[in-house]
Design brief:
Layout (H helix, E strand, L loop, with lengths): L3 E8 L4 E10 L2 E11 L6 H19 L3 E5 L7 H20 L4 E4 L1 H9 L6 H12 L9 H16 L7 E3 L2 H7 L9
Parallel strand pairs: 1-4, 4-5
Antiparallel strand pairs: 1-2, 2-3, 5-6
Amino acid sequence: MKTERIILGIDPGTTIMGYGLILVRGNKMELIVMGVLKLTKYANQALKLKKIFERTLELIDEYHPDDMALEAPFFGKNIQSMLKLGRAQGVAMAAGLYRDIPIAEYLPRKIKQSITGNGNASKEQVAAMLKNLLEFGTTPEHLDATDGLAAAVCHYFQTGKTSTTGTSYTGWKAFLAENPERVKGKT
């Protein structure tokens, strides 16, 4: 039985993508790395998506995570923003699936609830709790990094319990079997 696992968490975005990796040994977590991919210098939406895919693959190839957790898009009033966010999540997910990494998605409220005990917590509250849990020194300039880290920590908390509320996929076939409506041409 494997006693260690690495979890990659991603907060998808088309302006900034946040990410964090944790190492879990037994019931202890430690921070490996967190950071952001800044996409503001790319005007073309397709190029931004390519950069998200490439950076996610780089993280997977460098750290070899056992699991990947993503913040799921939430439903808002701006359809264009939701579409862009969904695409960003999709290409990050595709990178994980391309490397056969099991994927889990968590709603923002679930991540906040898991980290702070409050589903309406602010980004600052989430960052402060993660700082205490993982004992890192400085809060990053962009809280997207701690949001990505929060997805990884949430996944650890959820999979350590008997039931999981995230949706996991072990590959494209499993994803498509569970989501036939997401295939182009299907209704």
